[in-house]
Amino acid sequence: MRQMHRMLIGAVLAVGAGAQMMSAQQAGQPPAPGRGGGRQGQAPQPMSFFVTSVGKGDGANYGGLAGADAHCQALAAAAGRGSVQWVAYLSTQGPNAVSARDRIGPGPWFNAKGQQIAGSVAELHGDTLEQARMGNRIQKTTALNEKGEMVNGVGDTPNQHDVLTGSTPDGRAYTDSADHTCSNYTSNASVQPPAAGQQPAPGPSVQLGHHDRLGGPNASWNSVHASRGCSQPNLVSTGGAGLLYCFAPGGGAAGRGAAPAAAEK
């Protein structure tokens, strides 16, 4: 009896010690992030970033920056987030050129599920060596459309990972004479593919990023390669659909009563 009693006491003590260890481990770990990237119990952050679920259907011709911004605004409104200002992540060329990084506000930005994709412009673009090493959090599972759905990428049919940006990897406008923006998003010019074994002739195109970070020489979300032209078939031919990145310049704060940023001229 005494032996059985000692065994029962030992079992109780072991269970208690195990529970204490689990409690200590849990206490030493940070709380799991909620949908908003914060602590559990907090409301999710409102959407301030998305990839468009559809393009305009006219290749890279959005009617300029204003038309691209309007496309972002309309899709956001349909998803219940039209009360704040939205802009397309696009750079322009020529006189009064605009850099995409200067259009989107300071951050942070969150996708439709409240997951933070970047905390600042510098983090988004990897401005420092450390930020470039760490990277932002744009990838296929986080670069969601305005409906909270994943966008087709490599391995899907059709592949639609090409996203129009017209930008360098650091989010700035190109300064050379080549067309990197399909005439500042006003052209749907079609370019025929070159004959076998020949290099394509210089022509209208737009710089593209890959929302899934797959393919191309640098796995960049915003600047991987140029399109083969500006028409809808041209964009489809390299794995795109004329999609855009859309940002709310007010970031997460915009959904908590902050006034929308002033419209860009």
Write the layout of secondary structure elements.
Elements: H1 2-28, E1 49-51, H2 64-78, E2 87-88, E3 109-110, E4 116-118, H3 121-125, H4 129-134, E5 162-164, H5 182-185, E6 207-210, E7 225-226, H6 232-237, E8 240-247
Parallel strand pairs: 5-8
Antiparallel strand pairs: 1-8, 2-8, 3-4, 5-6, 6-7
Based on the model shown, name its key terms.
265 residues, 8 strands, alpha+beta, disordered C terminus, two-stranded antiparallel sheet, six-stranded mixed beta sheet, Mannose-Binding Protein A, Chain A, single chain
Can you characterise this structure?
With 265 residues, this protein is α+β, with helices and mostly antiparallel strands. It has helices at residues 2-28, 64-78, 121-125, 129-134, 182-185, 232-237, and strands at residues 49-51, 87-88, 109-110, 116-118, 162-164, 207-210, 225-226, 240-247. A hairpin with a 5-residue loop joins β3 and β4. The radius of gyration is 24 Å and the shape is globular.
What CATH architecture would you give?
Roll
Query: Alpha-carbon distance between the termini?
Result: 88 Å
Number of helices: 6
Radius of gyration of CA atoms, rounded to a whole number:
24 Å
Helix/strand order, N-terminal first:
HEHEEEHHEHEEHE
Amount of helix: 10-25%
Shape call: globular
How much of the residues is beta strand, in percent? 5-15%
| Average predicted local confidence, pLDDT | 84
Summarize the structure.
The protein has helices at 2-28, 64-78, 121-125, 129-134, 182-185, 232-237, and strands at 49-51, 87-88, 109-110, 116-118, 162-164, 207-210, 225-226, 240-247. The protein is 24% helix and 10% strand.
